[in-house]
Amino acid sequence: MAVRKILLGLIVACLPSAVATPAAAQSIPSPYRFVDTRQEAALFAGTSSMSTGRFGFGPGGGVNMGARWGIDLSGFLGFEAAAGVISGTRDIINPAKVVGDLKIGEGDQRIATADARLRLTLTGDRTWHRLQPIFFTGGGIAIGIGGDASLDEALASKDRFEFGTSFLGTVGTGVRYMVTDRLALRGDAIFSLWKIGTPPGFTESARGFTNVERNEWASGRHLSLSLGYRY
């Protein structure tokens, strides 16, 4: 009888520790993971949509592609530089037409862009479920690099639009997804501003044009997807 009581006491004493041991061994995985690399080189491609100005002769956007390099500076702050080309079309507008639609056709347009940005990473140097939401803003330059607009030859020189060179302002947001410790996918949505110059022929009051600005700001919306390598 005494032996039974002793065995029962031992079982009761050991039971809590036997139950607690598996529970203590369990660990809850964190959704956050540290990113050990600081720099990233990436290639991107996407689409662009631009406002074309009062008379509609500005570039309307098209396909964009290019490259981007970035570095994490400290904590949430980073720096990046991007360069690319927007290939699309623009309307050819003839301000000398007296009646009807001033548009006489379309022409190809290519614009090279380059800008530097300050980047804010919402999760800092960590990912949340492999994701990093980001915000960025910056500025740079946009340069017209030609295209096929043979219809321009039908216009007087004062009526021809040329993109030239313009300041480029950008602000955007995106999400980076760490596929592996080295490879990253990123989707961006960007709002931009650049200036388009008005050909002298569009400022002539004799043609019925009034209060025409020699330059006007045109806004753009860009969507892109990139594949980056972290190092």
Short synopsis of the structure:
With 231 residues, the chain is mainly beta. It has one helix at residues 2-25, and strands at 32-34, 39-50, 59-74, 77-93, 103-121, 126-128, 131-144, 165-178, 183-197, 215-230.
CATH topology: Porin
Helix content: 10-25%
Highest CATH level, the class = Mainly Beta
Overall mean pLDDT stands at: 89
Please, how many domains?
Answer: 1
Under the CATH scheme, the architecture is: Beta Barrel
Proportion of strand residues: over 45%
- Major sheet attributes: 8 strands, antiparallel, barrel
- Overall 3D geometry? elongated
Q: Give the strand tally.
A: 10
Please give the alpha-carbon distance between the first and last residues: 72 Å
How are strands sequenced across the largest beta sheet? 2-3-4-5-7-8-9-10
Which runs of at least 5 residues are low in confidence (pLDDT < 50)? 18-24
What is the radius of gyration? 30 Å
H/E element sequence: HEEEEEEEEEE
Determine the number of helices (DSSP H or I, runs of at least 4 residues). 1
Structural class: mainly beta
Layout of helices and strands:
Blueprint: H1 2-25, E1 32-34, E2 39-50, E3 59-74, E4 77-93, E5 103-121, E6 126-128, E7 131-144, E8 165-178, E9 183-197, E10 215-230
Antiparallel strand pairs: 1-6, 2-3, 2-10, 3-4, 4-5, 5-7, 7-8, 8-9, 9-10
Describe this structure in words.
This protein is mainly β and 231 residues long. The chain has a single domain (36-230), classed as Porin (Beta Barrel), CATH 2.40.160.20. Helix content is 10%, strand content 56%. The chain is elongated.
